[in-house]
Task: inverse folding
């Protein structure tokens, strides 16, 4: 059997026809950027995150960059983030001119609030947690910390659309929250897309301007910025995908439960707290002899990924001037391995993967 890590084809004939019809509607009205479907998509995002405002943008990276800019953060300021994430999180901070400060993580691979607390300085302007793997961060501790120190909380919710914490949707906690809808994400466009949500009218207005070259009324430029507008076709596709979204999450959660059952006591499997709902952007195990295991699985047709192979402070772009702490992250990173968890996997495929992992460790004992 071959088990791919991802399968981005839309094999289901009905789904493909529905997506093509949504694209066709856009081609007929011709408002190709920020068209009516973008507005409807933004309205849906507001509803689903319980926010007052949503701004559709062209990627999760731009969402983060514009969010930090909108908060007025720049040179001389510090933003505390996690050590383990996709590098987009750090790039977004660094490109505003602010200094990224890397905090350590906990066993669950998410930002450790105690580490954040140690790294707060008078220059800290924001805390930027990532809901890594689609698991909510310790938002209680992080919100308390941000509030008591008067710094903004910006959620990098790129991996966690649809997750919830204490009954509230992820994306409803920070001053601003950012999502990515790139093709790998749980809610995926057929190309690049992202969205920013907030409750603050002032931030919303600035974001709308920053999204289009810092303009107001599309012509007058009041501050330098880039073009980060969302394509109407992607919004139309996302609206379609949203109607299937509950099924997608349910399937991923079911696959995760199958894995957890099959791998109990063999490797460390992701845990879910009673007050949270994860979406399993990745199903990330922590395993001894990780690299050997990955090769063993590859040899039997199972594609896995190490997300992410470099801690952000150790990336060539940052390691010379990186500040913060990442001792625990350095211990955990060599153990992490992401198993295929996309919603097209069959029960048989999941069992095949679990059995292969069990076999690997049985061989170890033999
Ligand atoms: C995917 C991702 C991003 C960037 O989103 P893009 O849409 O790919 O630009 C940012 N942060 C995290 C944690 C991500 O996983």
Result:
């Amino acid at each position: 059997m071959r088990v791919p890590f991802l399968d981005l084809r839309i094999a289901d004939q009905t789904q493909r026809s529905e997506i093509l019809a949504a694209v066709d509607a856009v081609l007929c009205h011709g408002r190709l950027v920020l068209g009516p479907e973008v507005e409807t998509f933004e309205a849906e995002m507001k509803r689903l995150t319980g926010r007052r405002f949503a701004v559709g943008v062209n990627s999760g990276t731009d969402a983060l960059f514009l969010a930090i800019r909108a908060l007025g953060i720049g040179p001389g300021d510090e933003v505390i983030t996690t050590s383990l994430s996709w590098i987009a999180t750090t790039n977004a901070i660094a490109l505003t001119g602010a200094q990224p400060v890397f905090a350590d993580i906990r066993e669950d691979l998410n930002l450790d609030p105690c580490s954040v607390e140690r790294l707060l300085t008078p220059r800290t302007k924001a805390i930027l947690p990532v809901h890594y793997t689609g698991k909510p961060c310790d938002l209680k501790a992080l919100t308390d910390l941000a509030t008591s120190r008067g710094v903004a909380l910006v959620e990098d919710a790129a991996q966690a659309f649809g997750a919830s914490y204490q009954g509230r949707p992820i994306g409803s906690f920070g001053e601003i929250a950012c999502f990515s809808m790139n093709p790998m994400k749980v809610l995926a466009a057929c190309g690049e897309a992202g969205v920013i949500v907030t409750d603050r009218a002032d931030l919303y207005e600035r974001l709308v301007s920053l999204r289009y070259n810092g303009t107001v009324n599309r012509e007058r430029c009041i501050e330098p910025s880039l073009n980060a507008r969302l394509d109407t076709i992607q919004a139309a596709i996302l609206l379609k995908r949203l109607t299937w979204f509950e099924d997608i999450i349910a399937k991923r959660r079911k696959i995760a439960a199958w894995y957890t059952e099959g791998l109990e006591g063999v490797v460390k499997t992701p845990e879910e707290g009673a007050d949270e709902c994860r979406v399993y952007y990745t199903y990330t195990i922590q395993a001894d002899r990780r690299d050997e295991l990955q090769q063993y699985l590859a040899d039997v047709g199972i594609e896995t990924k190490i997300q992410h192979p470099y801690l952000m402070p150790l990336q060539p772009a940052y390691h010379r001037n990186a500040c913060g702490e990442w001792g625990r992250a350095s211990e955990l990173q060599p153990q992490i391995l992401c198993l295929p968890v996309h919603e097209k996997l069959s029960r048989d495929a999941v069992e095949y993967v679990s059995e292969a992992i069990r076999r690997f460790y049985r061989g170890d004992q033999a």
Observations:
- The two ends are 25 Å apart (CA to CA).
- Residues 59-61, 85-86, 88-89, 130, 156, 158-159, 180, 182, 192, 194 surround pyridoxal-5'-phosphate (CB under 6 Å).
- The longest strand covers residues 53-57.
